[in-house]
Amino acid sequence: MGIIHHSNYIKWMEEARIAYMESLGFGFDKVEELGIVSPVAGISITYKTPVLFNEVVDIQVSVTRYSGVIQEVSYTFVKQKTGDLCATATSKHCYLKDGKVVNLKHEIPALDKIFASELVKPEHN
User: Which of 11, 13, 33, 115 has the most beta carbons within 10 angstroms of its beta carbon?
Assistant: First the structure.
């Protein structure tokens, strides 16, 4: 069919979230060295325009919900050449240490402050 398979968006979301964390100065390696992991608790994707094999996509990442325990990350996929919206998505994460849910406000206060300052309210249409 010449289009990117829908499952690739999930991989791109993870790569974009990793790059986003790096840009904040708190890459996953640093967080995991402190014993904290952030598994995916849910994913939602709305597909708008197919991406062809030879197209490049830019992904904007933002934090749209954050409580210290739960975080929702939003993604906007846009074709680099045309600016066409390809998809919107969200992923929901929690934070665990030794298999138990933790609050980043207590475990990594510096990261908690960064996430709180990055919080963006989603647009309602």
Answer: 13
